[in-house]
Amino acid sequence: MTPDIFDPAKYRADFPVRAETVYGKPLIYFDNAATTQKPLPVIDTISRFYSRENANIHRGVFCLSEKATQAYESARIKVQRFLNARSTREIIFTRGTTEAINIVASAFSKVFLKAGDEILITHLEHHSNIVPWQMAAEASGAVLRVAPINEAGEVILSEFARLLTPKTRIAALAHVSNALGTINPVQEMIRLAHEKNIPVLVDGAQAVSHMKVDLQELDCEFYTFSAHKMFGPTGTGVLYGKEAWLEKMPPVQGGGDMIRSVTFEKTTYNELPYKFEAGTPHIVGVIALGTAVDYLQRVGLERIATYEQELLTYATKALSAIPGLRIIGQAKEKAAVISFVLGAAHAHDIGTILDREGIAIRAGHHCAMPVMDFFKVPATARASFAFYNSKAEVDVLAAALRKVQEIFR
Q1: Does pTM top 0.90 for this prediction?
Q2: Which domains, and CATH codes, for the chain?
Q3: Is residue 162 within 8 Å of residue 148, measured between CB atoms?
Q4: Per-residue pLDDT tens for 116-153?
């Protein structure tokens, strides 16, 4: 049998921006953890909708509205199957991961949190999975607990288990750390929480475009992600919630599709999933998310995961050979993210110099300031990879970092 050799060049033409130049040099895009580039099918979907199919959904009885509604709801079916959720009633469209977590934190706190209760998160979390829970704790009188990490950037599982107490009402954790690339053992963490009947929310923003996610296998109560990190448009995302939990939680926004009937005396809320989808949504964003799902499935998530691990191994070896470069976060299980510091150079200086070489990376705290505090660094430079990146591009990155080293020697 011929081995399946993944060739990123095969997909490069699908992404028009990859043909751009920066300061006269070919663009090398290594900021995929922040947002991914968009393939032509997604771009074409957006253009076609606004050019030929634009109408509001769920209300009109005319042809365009019915076509838009069908395309919108077809995207819900695609997402449900993509995640292996039990029902489309469990798929709620949001503006992104941040809004999805805020919906859960707000609605959950109104019903299930009171003074003295505890919320458990981890030290690896993005601000979007910290601040909403701080707000929920302040509103309810609950206490926020944090599971610590080790020097490799891994959650200490024994401490996570210890912090699951009779007072814990929910645990919220990242599937993959955006700052370090650490892949949390979420299935085991969910199992530990469920042993004590504690529901779990998983922030999947950095996972869904890099690995297969099966929600029935994971068995978490809530899962969130953003379209723009999986080759779809910005301003669109998904909240998955088990139907039984969503039924118990109140809506957090009023108006539009979330109502069944309204009088001045009383409003009756719509059924799931519309109870949580107030107002006119980002219609074309959702439809284009469905297109992104189709695209990812054509490429193959298993193939993507295998190739990106190969690329990560190659890049880790190449960057580790640079004197003075220190990789921050070296978990045994990592996604294709390398966060690093280089001698006396500030992360922003590194980013600026690399930009002149045509290389786009992220520099800063990556909306994970507690992680930076743990490693006692103000910021890191971060290269995050996608399946359209190549080993040749990694070689250019390594050569450019050696230039940075020379400048700050």
Answers
A1: yes
A2: 9-30+300-407 (3.90.1150.10), 44-297 (3.40.640.10)
A3: no
A4: 999 999 999 999 999 999 999 999 999 999 999 999 99
